[in-house]
Amino acid sequence: MPSSSFYQAKRMHGVCKGSLYRQIEKRPGVASSSSSKVLSFAILFGVQLVCYDSKQAYDDGDRPMTMYLVVALSSSGNDAFRLVTHQGTHLLCRAMTNQCREVWLSAITAGLERSLAEGQNTVEMETFSKVKPRSHNKRNLKHQPYCHSCGKMERLEFQLIKEGTPILQYGEEERVDISENCFVAQGVVDHVSFVREMYRYQELDQYAIQQARYMVLKKLKPELEIDHDNPKPLTSQLQLTKTSPSEVAQLFIRPDFKALQRASSTLHDLATEFEQGIIGVLELLELMEQSLGIRDKEMAALKKQAFRMAGDMGTSLKMLAEQALPTEQYTSTELLQCILDFLLDLCDDGEIQTIAFYWPQLCNIHLQMLPPTDVASLQRIELMEDFLLTMAAKHSVHLAIELIWSHTADLEDAKTLKYCRNRKFAVIRFLCELESMLFDFESGWGGGSVTVGGYLNPTKHQIMLLKNWMAEIQKYRLTQTEVLSRSCRLDKLRGRQSMDEAKVGPEKLAEEALRIARNADYLSSHMAFTKRLCDIAEKLFHQPVPERAAMLQNELFRLNSSGAMGGDPLNTVKESHTRVVRIPPTEGHVFRSKERTPVLLLVEVNDEGVTESAVDTLNQQFKSEKLKQEKRNQQEDENHLKEVNANGGEPTAAASSESGENDDSADVEQQSEIQPQSESASEPVKGASAPQEAATAVTDVPLAPESPHPSILSSPIPNTPGGTLVEDPGSTEGLHHEPEQRHALRRFDGKNGAARILTPTAEKEMVEGLVTQAVVNKLIIPSLADGKEDEAEMNGSEGMNGNGEDRSLAPALKRISSMGNATSPREQDLRREVLNSIMMKGMSKSNTIAAGATGAVQRHLQQLDQRLAVELLMTGDAPISSSSDSARHELLSLGISSVAQDEQPELTAEAKEENDTMEAIRLLLIQYHVAQGTLSMQDAAKALTPNMRRKGDLGTRTFMGREFPEIDAGDIDQRLVGCGVLPPAVLQALSLWKGGMITNGELLELVKKDLEYVKVSEESQQILNEDSAFWQRFAFGERWAEKRSRIAANSHEAAKPGYDLIGVIVKSNDDLRQEAFVMQLIELCKEAFHEAGLDLWLLPYRILPTGRTTGVIEMVRNAMSFDALKKRPGYGKGGLKEHLRRMSQFAADPGEAFKSFQNNFVKSLAAYSLLSYLFLFKDRHNGNLLLDTVGHVIHIDFGFVFGIAPGGNFSLELNTPFKLTEEMIDVMDGVRSSLFSEFVTLFCCGFLALQAHTNTFVTLLEITSKGSTFHAFEGKNCDEIIAKFKQRLCAGKNKEETISTILDVIKEATSSYGTKQYDYFQYMSQGIAQ
After folding, report:
1. 1026 pLDDT band (50/70/90 cuts)?
2. Which of 1226, 1218, 1223, 1236 is nearest to 1315 (CA)?
3. Biggest CA-to-CA distance, the chain
4. CA distance 1298 to 1248
5. Cβ pair 739, 353 in contact under 8 A
6. Is the pLDDT of residue 1016 over 70?
7. What is the mean pLDDT of the chain?
8. Of 301, 342, 400, 523, which has the fewest beta carbons less than 10 angstroms from its beta carbon?
9. What is the pLDDT of residue 858?
């Protein structure tokens, strides 16, 4: 046998391990029972000897070959010894060496001595006689296989595991046949038995070390007082002499001290190191106090404070992983305890969302720690489990649900993966303890009926053992010294829940009991409901594709009629509980997929935390803000009109502030040139007297006040297309969950422990300056008559390039080669306009990018003037100048307006819903006028412009016998500008809504019902759908607000204050854990962009894996895949850009709307392109790219990341940095446009923002990839994956080198061959549009 199969015996932390030959000399009741010698890998804890086939079998979690309870020991020969087991078996054991034999003898002797000292016996093993087979047929029972745990006979539907496991409680020392359920339960029993034995050893170990410490202290200083009840560090009170070491050494040879060494392997190791001179007397005492958990409380508090001052969440997570999973033997748990207490402090400070962000990593760390292998590992596991149980039971039941789903998925992995099988029984034990905490069971054993489900079905004897041993473990836990400062488990054991009512009060006790009951009910209902949804998706998977829709509808009808609804299927972490009340059966949809069955469901939910009083309070606050804003708007309108009249009817470029300063005059002048504003603009121009109020006006989305100036009311809200905010409330910004702000990238050493920004925000200005200078360099005029460039320009001064700029930046400033150079005189003159505009904005300090390029612009203008003068002398011709306002306006926008976009405020949920409702009503009114014939399709664009009707053109209309004055829609609300005259019924509905009498959904439903539609023939309808650009506005189908109001109108639950409609996708036959991790990275990137002040747009959506092959995904609202969009009728030949133009054509201001779509496209495309490059998003066909209703690009489906791709090493996308097609570039007006320059700038700024958090990203990757089952990590070299990620993130490079690399990446993406080829392959193989 190879030497690698031999392992030296080693005793440490209550466990003795090593290779051991064993041979059975005699079995009780068997005449000839000797066996051959077998080499095993043996584990001894207490008096229990467990033997495995090999060390590999032990590591893989295989069940042992034999298990013995030792009752007697005798020495035999040089390296042999004999054992007698509880069942009377005689074993002859032989160690590898004589030294190994001594280790085994010492360990077995210590176990027997402790057993005798405690009076321990194995009564629980003797009470259970061997199980006999149970069957109705009494014949031939002797030779039929049966389960040796439950006695059931093997049948076709009840298969046995042949030679499955030993069963000590029935005296079965070797493997016997057992059923699957009993096999799992027996594994849990043996695991709990091991934990109990570790606690027994730890108690004896602590006693031995405590006695040894007492003996040493009394030997050195007899008068020293030692308090055993409240021990404190005493080394500082000792005064050592030269004879102190010898005095301590004399103690070690005493018989009583030798007995203590045999009882404690830790004490034996310390004594050995002292005798060898490795440690001294003080070090010996300090290590003893460390092992006993005796620490200076003041020093511990200082360490905790120092850690808090120096730590952020990324650092905390990394240190937690290092302490929880040490690479070498590590006994102290002080730092681990400090970190976990720090995380609990964050929760108490209201930072539960921060912990929730890192919750998957915390769960994975716990899984990697399992199972315990000795006392030291058990101590670390107990601290970690204390933290997890406290978080789940005290702070958030939603975190408890995620914890259960992650661990049950690991149980599913254990069926096929060895490294998961090793911890299977420990995971089941923990989930049962979690259930006991959540349901407030007294015994500490929950049974696992909710958390574990069908994984654990023990027999009555196994249940008895589990309950008794868990109760014994709970008693040992009460004596532990190294515990967290706050532990729900220990609080329960110490009777904190049953304190004096006079001290706590019966009301508090009742509230706590009610909270526990509600959490338990929510957890059990959520688990059952979500499992049922996943079962429906799994059931549909096995059905033919044409039959799936009808079966889904039947299943949903059955589910609704059963009344067995549950919690929020997405399990969003928040304080309140969200319950599912109904799933509309006819609204479900099954995607046509052969491999998987994604099921789209619309779910009606009710947030129990939203009460009528809370809604009334919010409505009052919202209405109050509206009234205040209306007054502000009215006052500003009056001031503006006065200003116009004072200037002879001409508005000024910008109003001066009260202090007389006007730093934004250049912005106002350029804005007035590019987009002249009406004399009666309702909002003051930027730089007016109340910029802060103007910003608030856009955020609050006020209703237009009733004003005598209809021209003012009909003006659109600034920065919005057609009066609708650019951040469309009906778009993907309106995901149903709005989690609290997370501080995943912040430090917590601010005032009173508050989070503070960790990312420096000055990066953007520097990056924008560098990238803009790179663009400006491309505007250098080429050579003149001689055909050569000026020598001074080429050479410049030493160390500088031709522009007077540092040569070291040249590689970074010359990457965007595709910007091109103009050569005609007209283009030169127009370029002068561009350069002058950049210089003027830079000098006014109103534009960061222009300010960074001012010096280079001045030099370019001087060179341009010199060359024009030379041309005049040589040709005698006057320079050609361009006075075209349109060309001038177009060039003024290049590189300037797109990069100086004002940040658009983020709307509240109420404002988003209200704007979405107004947008839906606006489209309905337009459709109404077209259908009535009052508006032709040819004149639709003209009719929908602002000020479509004036007050004098309006008449009266008769409705229900009464005469009503005609009112323009824009007079009622600015967001309805251009919708024409309101029908009386619609006017009444809007009046009720403005008065607060009806809700948004009720308003929309009334408008839809009351509008007098005229039916159009099918032929006319087809012409409208195919030929009219008007109907392209409806390319995305029914808007979410319309869908919500339609479903709410038919629901009895809609009257509840917390009612809402959410969309989820339930998937089967697909592992979503990897996608959930990628979504976590996307959310982290979004926070990094936000902290750095970058206008990059990402949409993290909720993904909840519920197992290895099932999960729930949040539906992205108001968005459609590029594939589906291209296949819709009327998409046209103009591509994506033309589609966006058609969508914006009928806005109140089509030009501004189209610019808004383009800007949204650039912000989102830059963000997702950056992430695609860093995290290697592959499989980027047009079915995995979405476009929402306001132009945002959204990436979905992250099954191929971090180096894996369809086709493996032959993937067409392998060398493509990210997807950037010609169609996408065309939306940005080409590579020579300012939008493309903005794309490059945002890409570079975002890259540096993420680079600042390299350590945090690496920490997430390291923890997640360790022992991971993700396709991207399983079986891969994770160290290499992380190293390549750091290389892509340019870790270690300075900013100039980083930007140079980024520009090379972008250039490569613009001409990637693989992008086109992969789209063509997907079109040919899957029919996905190119």
Report:
1. very low
2. 1218
3. 126
4. 8
5. yes
6. no
7. 75
8. 301
9. 58
Between β-strands 578-582 and 599-607, what pairing exists: parallel, antiparallel or unpaired?
antiparallel
Question: 271-285, 400-414, 1080-1094, 1126-1140 — which is least confidently predicted?
Answer: 1126-1140
48-52/66-76 β-pairing: antiparallel
Spatial neighbors of 31 by CB under 8 A, at least 6 apart, are: none
Contact (CB, 8 A) for 1157 and 1191: yes
Query: Using one digit for the tens of pLDDT, what is the confidence trace for 1242-1259?
Result: 999 999 999 999 999 999
The partner residues of 1195 in beta bridges, in order of sequence, read: 1185
Residue 708 preceded by cis peptide, ω within 30: no
CA angle 447, 453, 455 (to 5 degrees): 90
Residue 917 has pLDDT above 50, yes or no: yes
Count of CA atoms in the C-beta half-sphere (13 A) of 907: 25
Please, which pLDDT band fits residue 629 given cuts at 50, 70 and 90? low
Tokens found for residue 1064: 């989820």
Residue 486 near residue 527, CB atoms below 8 Å: no
**With 60 as the cut, is the pLDDT of residue 754 above it?**
no
State pLDDT tens for residues 185-227.
Answer: 999 999 999 999 999 999 999 889 999 998 999 888 888 888 7
Joined together, the tokens standing for residue 161 give 């595991």
Contact 606, 578 (CB under 8 A): yes
pTM of this structure? 0.77
Q: Is the dihedral of CA 1152, 1154, 1159, 1164 positive or negative?
A: positive
Neighbours of 719 (CB within 10 A): 18
Angle between helix axes 424-438 and 180-220 (nearest 10 degrees) is: 80
Residue by residue, DSSP assigns 708-758 as S-HHHHTSPPTTSGGGS-SS-TTSGGG-S--PPPP-TTEES-SGGG--EE-
Tell me the backbone φ, ψ of residue 1058, rounded to 5 degrees. Answer: -95, 20
pLDDT band for position 907 (cuts 50, 70, 90): low
Average pLDDT for 1183-1194:
92
Residues forming a β-bridge with 1060: 605
Measured in degrees and rounded to the nearest 5, phi and psi for residue 495 equal 80, 25
Return d(Cα 504, Cα 496) in angstroms, integer. Answer: 10
Place of tokens 């003795």: 16
Q: Give the model confidence (pLDDT) of 418-446 as tens digits.
A: 888 999 999 999 999 999 999 988 777 88
Do the beta carbons of residue 1212 and residue 1317 sit within 8 Å? yes
Q: Which of 109, 112, 64 is nearest to 86 (CA)?
A: 112
Element (H, E) at 51: strand 48-52
CA distance 1301 to 1286: 13
DSSP calls for 758-785: -S-STHHHHHHHHHHHHHHHTT-----T
Residue 290 scores a pLDDT above 80: yes
Of 1039, 1076, 1040, 1075, residue with least CA distance to 1061: 1040
Say if residues 410 and 350 touch (Cβ distance below 8 Å): no
Above 50 in pLDDT, residue 1101?
A: yes
CB 1057 within 8 A of CB 935: no
List, in order, residues 6 or more apart from 331 with CB less than 8 Å away. 13, 266, 290, 291, 376
Transcribe 863-890 into DSSP letters. HHHHHHHHHHHHH-PPPP----HHHHHH
Q: Residue 846: which pLDDT band, with cuts at 50, 70 and 90?
A: very low
Task: Answer whether 861's CB lies under 8 Å from 835's CB.
Answer: yes
At residue 830, the pLDDT reads 40
Q: Which amino acid is at 1113?
A: I
Half-sphere exposure of 57 (CA within 13 A, CB side): 16
pLDDT in tens, 233-263: 888 788 888 888 898 998 888 999 988 888 8
